[in-house]
Write a structure and sequence with these properties.
homotetramer; mainly alpha; Arc Repressor Mutant, subunit A; Tetracycline Repressor, domain 2; 2 domains; 9 helices; DNA-binding
DNA sequence: CATGAATGAGTTTTCATTCAT
DNA sequence: TATGAATGAAAACTCATTCAT
């Protein structure tokens, strides 16, 4: 009815200026590190902000919600992956050579962004991923499946469901990555080539 | 503030009667379902209690904490897995036959407890796992690695690090499972055998 | 990828036990006082909890959200008002006597719950009120309007829209209440009767 | 993190040009609309800025704080009201005629600024109003009270406290306004005259 | 004088855990 | 041993305010 005490004193704030888009990038970078280390639900936003070197509130200036941030991150990296794996792919090569090229690209992408691979694979079906994120996942799977189908038609690969072959290849790559991860993220040429050979022999007719 | 007459009977506390040990199991069952679906941090204890059909407080009668519950669950299933995979294993068979046997057992265990596989694989290095849980993981890995080493020594498998071979085999199995899950069909004999063959060819010299 | 520090230590908590329904009542009481004093948006939930003598979290055990609390409060008091104004109303009396009776009841209700009247009137169209709350408002208006229509038909009141007459009467009552509020909530018999007479003369033919 | 090339042109800061004083007025206009619709605490400054078509920071170029803005707005309109109600008031007329004139002026002011009336009436004792704002309120009340006292002395009005009579008249006016608002029609002559007559009969001896 | 990203305290809400019954 | 209301610290999110440009 009458006078209620006004809030204590709305606090000032030191300022920082960053180059265009830098804040967003910093947040995405921190999110990748923390999400892959501790999981989505295991990562509090303030921790994320601290790691990104920004204030908690700034997160929400760039992303609608924590969930939206996770989706943006997911889509960003799925797209980057799609590009790294298939951008300007040399389709004129023989199937075996194409496979080699793809394997190399996958490895290169992993080496450049070791956390990304782990995160993408582990959070495939997380409840917080939206339609668009799931669509991105499919977009990456499509060319792989197409390639496998073609090679299978040419009787180079086993007459198994293309998706099964893809799943197996993916599994082998993931196994190799896990092995590398256990060895402190070192993925040397030798292992890479060996795993590629394993994979090819797993699939080939 | 007072227009509803207070209820005449003070409602005696309902008490649920359960067979011995059943409550604990109901909790573990609910935990498995929820943890594998939503993750550890994504699963509130009250929800867990509801799914288990017990009161929230009852959880703490059976487990020290949520973390302790997760570890108990993890250890329970790692041990079950160890037993299912290697209990009374026919070590007298040929390596190829042993591999076949193992593959079959892995599949059988997966079919019997599909969620377990998913959960165990995904939460390998989670922060909430204690020493004992990690020890359980190693205990499962040991016989597999030993088998691979032996077969490799006999020049049946490629001369690669045993851990890499194991990781690859594991990856293929996981790929197969994912494939089955994605296609919404039971892991049938055909796919199972095909994947086994792929796996063997991946590893063999 | 590896061990993230588990949360600091999830804090214990002293307990309190209250009679059935007491907590809810305490919350509603505190909410009435604070909402009418500082408005809905001007009242932080922790303050509300403190005033109610409960923990912040307890609010959410009894109400879905702050908004739901406001609606529950609103509906509670609108219903109480309906009952106080019209419960067992002596419809056999003359119109003038009925008006007197109603005026007395309105005053009695105000005297018993001074804050309620103010709050109900001021927050009539607040954005946070739901369907049911608005329906409650209408339910209170209906008998008043019906009474006015009847008296107007008997040529006791001016031939004006019933809703206008009701609005005017309501306005006078509110004016009286504001006057009383300014005088430290004292609403003495004299003022009450005088205002009643004013109101009747405002409406009568 | 880096697959999009940074934009070629660094985008020069857009600057809005407005006629002198227009920005301040745009802010006040937006504030009136939002404060009367959602209340002071329910209106975020960024929303206000958006509605006013200015940047958030610009608000603080024209007003010390949100609270200061509310007070400026309040005072602005209380003064406007004072002027509209009593500026050059024809004090030579008979009391009844003066009352008619006042009623007309009140209605005219309401019609010209419907939101103002609502806001002024509802936020009379809000905690964020400062001394000066409250003084403005009193300044509007003074001539009304004086007029009522005079008329009462001349035995034209009931021998009641002047403040009660004023409160009643105010209540009737508000009731009329609410009625018009609820019926979604303009305050027409007919209703206006009828309410005036009601009000006079409520107060007159 | 204008801008709007950045800030961090404050707000709403959740949830692991306790304990009187 | 089971219950579930109560707790309060921490989570997600908001917003008044500042300041580099």
């Amino acid at each position: 009815m009458s006078d209620a005490p006004s809030p204590p004193a709305p606090a000032p704030a030191p300022r920082k200026k960053r180059a265009e888009g830098t804040t967003r990038e910093a947040i995405l970078k921190a999110a990748l590190e923390l999400f892959s280390e501790r999981g989505f639900h295991g990562t509090p936003v303030p921790l994320l902000a601290e790691k990104a070197g920004v204030a908690t509130g700034s997160i929400y200036r760039h992303f609608e919600s924590k969930e939206a941030l996770a989706n943006a991150l997911y889509q960003h990296w799925r797209n980057a992956q799609l590009n790294a794996w298939f951008g300007g792919f040399p389709v004129h090569l023989s199937e075996r050579a194409q496979f080699h090229e793809l394997w190399r690209r996958m490895a290169a992408f992993y080496k450049a962004n070791p956390l990304v691979f782990v995160w993408l694979e582990q959070h495939n079906h997380a409840a917080y991923l939206d339609e668009e994120s799931l669509a991105c996942t499919k977009r990456v799977l499509r060319p792989t499946t197409a390639f496998v189908k073609l090679a299978r038609e040419k009787h180079l690969l086993k007459p198994l469901p293309a998706k099964l072959l893809v799943a197996i290849a993916d599994g082998i790559f993931m196994g190799m990555v896990r092995f590398a991860t256990a060895q402190h993220f070192e993925l040397d040429e030798e292992v890479l080539d060996a795993a590629e050979q394993c994979c090819w022999e797993a699939m080939r007719k």
